[in-house]
C-alpha cells in the first residue's frame, strides 16, 4: 500500500484530531485496504468485512499513530491484523456450527482453489506462530506481508537490525514447517 504524500499529511492531521481530515483519509484508503484484505481472504464478502473493521480501527485508533514511521506502514499492520481477526472469527464460527444447522453455502476453498486454500493454510500457520512466538509473527508480518525492508522492520519493532533478520528467518522456518514441503518455499 504505497500512499501519496497528501494521504500521509491527512493521516498526521487526523492523528492530531482533525475530524475532516479523518473522513477524507478513510475515503482515500478504502480501496487500498479492500485490495490488501482481498489478498489475505479468499472470499470477497470476508475481505469487505475485514476492510470495514480496518476502517473502523483506523478511525478509533488514529490518535495512536505517532508519525514515527509512515502512515502506510501503520495501516498495513492494522489491515493485516483485522484480516487475521476476521479469519479467526470465521474459523471459530464454522467450528461452532452443529450438524443440525444449515450447511455452509460456500464451497470449501481448500478443495476448489489452490490459491484460496494456500492462503487459508498460511493464515493457519501465522495464527499458530503468533500463539507460540508473537515476537516472530510481528517481524514476519512487517517484512513479508507489509513488505517493509529489514531496516524498517527493525525500526518499527525497536530492535537491532541483526535481531530483526534473525526473527524473520526463524519465523519463515516455522511457517515453512507448518505448511509442509507440498507448498515449496512460500516466502522470498
From TrEMBL:
- Where in this chain does the record put each RNA polymerase sigma factor 70 region 4 type domain? 134-173
Identify the Pfam families for this entry. Answer: Sigma70_r2, Sigma70_r4_2
Q: Is Ion transport tagged as a keyword?
A: no
Q: Where is the RNA polymerase sigma-70 region domain?
A: 26-92
Which of UniProt's keywords are assigned here? Sigma factor, Transcription, Transcription regulation
Q: Which InterPro entries match?
A: RNA_pol_sigma-70-like (IPR039425), RNA_pol_sigma-70_dom (IPR014284), RNA_pol_sigma70_r2 (IPR007627), RNA_pol_sigma70_r4_t2 (IPR013249), RNA_pol_sigma_r2 (IPR013325), RNA_pol_sigma_r3/r4-like (IPR013324), WH-like_DNA-bd_sf (IPR036388)
Question: What protein family does this chain belong to?
Answer: Belongs to the sigma-70 factor family. ECF subfamily.
Protein known as? RNA polymerase sigma factor
Amino acid at each position: 500500500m504505497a500512499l501519496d504524500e497528501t494521504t500521509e499529511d491527512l493521516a498526521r492531521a487526523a492523528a492530531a484530531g482533525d475530524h475532516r481530515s479523518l473522513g477524507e483519509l478513510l475515503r482515500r484508503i478504502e480501496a487500498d485496504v479492500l485490495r490488501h484484505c482481498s489478498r489475505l481472504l479468499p472470499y470477497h464478502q470476508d475481505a469487505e468485512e475485514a476492510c470495514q473493521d480496518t476502517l473502523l480501527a483506523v478511525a478509533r485508533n488514529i490518535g495512536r499513530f505517532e508519525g514515527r514511521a509512515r502512515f502506510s506502514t501503520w495501516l498495513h499492520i492494522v489491515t493485516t491484523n483485522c484480516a487475521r481477526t476476521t479469519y479467526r472469527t470465521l474459523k471459530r464460527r464454522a467450528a461452532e456450527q452443529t450438524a443440525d444447522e444449515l450447511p455452509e453455502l460456500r464451497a470449501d476453498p481448500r478443495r476448489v482453489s489452490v490459491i484460496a486454500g494456500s492462503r487459508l493454510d498460511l493464515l493457519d500457520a501465522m495464527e499458530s506462530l503468533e500463539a507460540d512466538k508473537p515476537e516472530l509473527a510481528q517481524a514476519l508480518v512487517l517484512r513479508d506481508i507489509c513488505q517493509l525492508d529489514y531496516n524498517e522492520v527493525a525500526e518499527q519493532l525497536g530492535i537491532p537490525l541483526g535481531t530483526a533478520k534473525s526473527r524473520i528467518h526463524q519465523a519463515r522456518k516455522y511457517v515453512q514447517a507448518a505448511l509442509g514441503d507440498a507448498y515449496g518455499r512460500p516466502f522470498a
